[in-house]
Amino acid sequence: MWQCYATRPELTSAVALSPIGLRDHPQITTQLASFERHEFLPVLIAAVVALSSGATTPKPVPQLRQSPINLPRLSVVPNKGSFSIQLDTAPAVVSHENHTVKATWNAGAKSFLKLNSNVYNSVQFHPHAPSEHTIGGVRYPFEVHFVHQDKNKNLAVVGILFELDPNDEPNPFLDQYLSGFSQLTKPGDKFTLDSLDPSSLDVADSNVYRYPGSLTTEPYTEGVEWSVLQEVHTMSLSQLEAWESVIHHPNSRPVQPLNGRSVKLVAKKY
């Protein structure tokens, strides 16, 4: 084994430069054991060369624009074309994703989100319970995220908050989405909706919070344009229980620091 090691000049030079003996260094003791079994030689070489060069693991870049956040009570500012949305009826495949239940749809050109001059297509939605965003510190039982993507694969998400209806009236949109939940007994299960109609949400008729943020699930990628409707919709207790019959645990990320970001409450019409 050591004769084989000595025939590798990159290893012998690295060890010669190392301030301590090869076998005495804790970072590569386990690598040597593997090497003696004639395994993972490239890993051993990399470890020794890294030691001789003083290489260290790079520190992760701090992420300062994370979601969700607490949305403060704000005065409304004019909507000068900075936000418009339309959701149209389309078929959807509803799938159990373990941590949520996602509805993937292709609603076509009639479903879009427009932020300033950039157009995003609607691709899927999924809920979180309880809500991820809060308004003035108030958390709601349910939040649905409508995920949009532009031609360059940049993401924009529209969040809609739900509270329990005082008369326990069901939400028509959620009724459609939840209709096949009895078929979702394990992750990977799915069902198809021939027609999912979002018109009852009336998404264009609400002021909207706007801020820059991130995905709320791993890898928490930043650069996501967030829009959260100020209007809170309602749902019935039985609808919330239907959700909990499939997703048995909270799936919400805690509120993240604002870190100096600007949040605006944009008027619904312009």
Task: Give a description of the structure.
Residues 1-53 have low confidence and may be disordered. With 270 residues, this protein is α+β, with helices and mostly antiparallel strands. Helix 2 (9-17) packs parallel to helix 4 and helix 3 (26-36) runs antiparallel to helix 4. The protein is 20% helix and 31% strand. It contains six helices and 16 strands. It has helices at residues 2-6, 9-17, 26-36, 41-53, 172-178, 237-244, and strands spanning 70-71, 76-77, 84-86, 90-96, 101-105, 112-115, 118-128, 134-135, 138-139, 142-149, 155-164, 190-196, 208-214, 222-229, 233-235, 264-266. The protein has one domain: Alpha carbonic anhydrase (Carbonic Anhydrase II), CATH 3.10.200.10. Residues 47-267 form the Alpha-carbonic anhydrase domain. It is an enzyme of class 4 (lyase). Belongs to the alpha-carbonic anhydrase family. Keywords: Lyase, Metal-binding, Zinc. Its cofactor is Zn(2+).
